[in-house]
Design a protein that fits this description.
This protein is α+β, with helices and mostly antiparallel strands and about 425 residues long. It contains 18 helices and 10 strands. The termini are far apart.
Amino acid sequence: MLAVDTIDPRFDENPTLPGVSDPWPVYRAVRETDPVHWCAGAHLWAVMRYDDAQTVLKDSRLSRQAYLDSLETRTGRQPIIEMQRHELVFMDNPHHGQLRQLIGDAINAQAVRDLRSEIDTLVEQKLAPLLSRGHFDAIGDFLLTLPTAIAAAWLGVPEEEREQITSWIFPLVSGRGVTRDPQTTAAASAAAKQLRAYFNALIRQRRAAPKGDLISALLATQAQAPSLMSDDDLFALFAAVFAAGHTPGIALLAGTLLALLEFPDQLARLRADLSLLPLAIEEGLRYNSPTQAPNPLAALEDISIRGKTIHKGEALTAILASANRDPEVFPEPDRFDVGRTPNRHLAFSAGAHYCLGAMLTRLEAHSILSAVVQRLPGLRLACNPGELTWIPHDRFRMLATLPIAFETISQSPAPVP
């Protein structure tokens, strides 16, 4: 067993290891050596094992709002922090539970299922022009704008305005990491202000003339309980729909596709039995967890985890990427298995803050990956695996590019009469 002082110093600076191509040996070493670890550079505790992570995600003695309070004390008031105070993922109960129950009337399983046809159309529009090329960058040419387009279509953002929205979402997500620097915070705050101005105008339009979109549905929900759902809450929810689909959505799709290319036997197995696709998506969520860790929490009182005391006011986070490869829960955790079951991964968190967007994420992943698997014969990685790079994106594991190649199906000449 390794000594604690041999732990990779990059982990102490940021336990989500942004940009590290192979974080798993580091996670394994910390999980086995010091599973509740104080990261001095990041000023927080990192919880590495599955059972502890699950407990942390459900513990009411850990507060999201208290973490924002401590963050504001260090950085001063920022538009990005003000926005986060109204996000569901940062709310504590009872307000979190009350608001989540209220918006459940608009964001529910049937509402998401009704999007399937529109999602399939968007996927076809993006994929069809690429089929004759024989190769393309699965991220830049295909995946990069799809989750945002899907979220925009659901909310009711006009098609001609979606590119602008996308340009604001990336800095918004980048500035909400486990560690924050002045540059990313400033960029996120600027994006939050621009996005807020945009949605304020859209809200006024929908109040005057409702449509059959999610914005109109949520405005109708707000009208039922205006004291419970403010316009600030509405804006944070709109931003969260975009943010959850953009970076984590792209990360899931690219990470799962890469795993299928790295394990060609599993790709062949999936092609032979497409009914395995839902399980394959869950395995993608586990194997290359899109979110390496949720936003930190702050202890409201002294808490003991595996003999370590997290003092009142200290921050901690659960390293989901480590928990999802805990061998005590997942046999052969470093093997990608499209038929893995059970698969109780924590990619969507756990407890009261289980991801509200999980249904949409799974639906769009099913549409996109089924199209890729079925319509790109001979699918393979078009570069050496060692040439792939990962964006140094705090909290999210996201490839910069994913070049793929495949066989094009030539059209047979028409028979001569």
